[in-house]
Amino acid sequence: MRSSRIDNKYCLPIIKRSRTEVNATIEANINTFRYLEVWLDYIDDLDAGYAASLVGLYPHRLIMIFRRQNLESCRMSTERRFEILKTLSRKQVLVDLDISTQAEDITRLQSERVPIKSILSYHNYSFTPSDTELRSITDRIEGWGAYITKISTFCPMQRDALRLLSLLIDLRESGRKCIVLGMGKHGVITRVFGQIWGNEMGFAPLSLDQKSAPGQLPVDKLDSILEALG
Asked: Which runs of consecutive H residues, i.e. helices, occur in 62-214?
C-alpha cells in the first residue's frame, strides 16, 4: 500500500497550529505520500526561516501554501509573506499561489525576479465558470509562467464535473502540467478520474475531518476505489 500511494501521487494536506505538529505529521507520512502540503498561515509559531528549513529536510516533496481555506483573509501580512517567499527562491519546493487573492504576490515575484517553482491556482467555492471563462483563466495562468496550472471549483451539477474532466484532458493533450479538481459531492468523481487521467497530484487527507476542501476523499477510501478500478 505504501508504494502505491507514492506511485499515485497523493498529496497530504497539513493544517496544523504549531511547527511541532507539522513536523510530526510530515515525519509520520513522508514514506506513504508523494507530496505534503503545508498551510503556513495556520502555524502560530511560524518564523521566516521555517519553510526553507523544511524544504532542506524534504526536497522535492513539499508544497507551501500561504492562503487559508475558503479564500479567507490571511493573518500574515503582505511583507512577511513576501519575506518567506524569497527564502523559497530557487529551492526544491512547489509554492501554490491563488491568482485571485495573491495576484499581488505573483506580480511582485515576477517584477523583482524572484524565481519560484509555482502552482498557480484558481479557486471558486461557489460555482464552476463557463468553459470559455475556464480556458481564459488557464491562458492567464500559462501567461504567468506557472510550472503547474491548478483549477479547483465547486460543482453544483454533475455536468460541471464532466466539464472539468474535459478541461483536464485538453490541458494534458496540450502538454501542460495541471491539477483540475471539483469540489462538493458532484466534484468527487474528478478526484478519482483525475488520478487516472493525469492530474499531477491528488489531495487525500487521512480522514474527512482533516480535509482542506469539500469533496476530498480520505486516502484509504481513494485507495480502495482505485484498486477496484484496477
From this structure: 78-87, 103-111, 131-143, 158-173, 188-197
Compute the distance between CA of residue 43 and CA of residue 50 in angstroms, rounded to an integer: 10
Residues in contact with 68: Cβ distance below 8 Å, sequence separation at least 6, in sequence order: 39, 41, 42, 74, 75
pTM here?
Answer: 0.95
215 versus 2: the higher-pLDDT residue is 215
Query: Rounded to 5 degrees, what are φ and ψ at 33?
Result: -120, 140
Cell matching residue 192: 478519482
Q: In which residue are the cell numbers 504549531 written?
A: 18
What DSSP element (H or E) covers 203? Answer: strand 202-203
**DSSP code, position 219:** H
Q: What is the DSSP letter of 70?
A: G
pLDDT band at 3 (very low <50, low <70, confident <90, very high): very low
Higher model confidence: residue 183 or residue 4?
Answer: 183
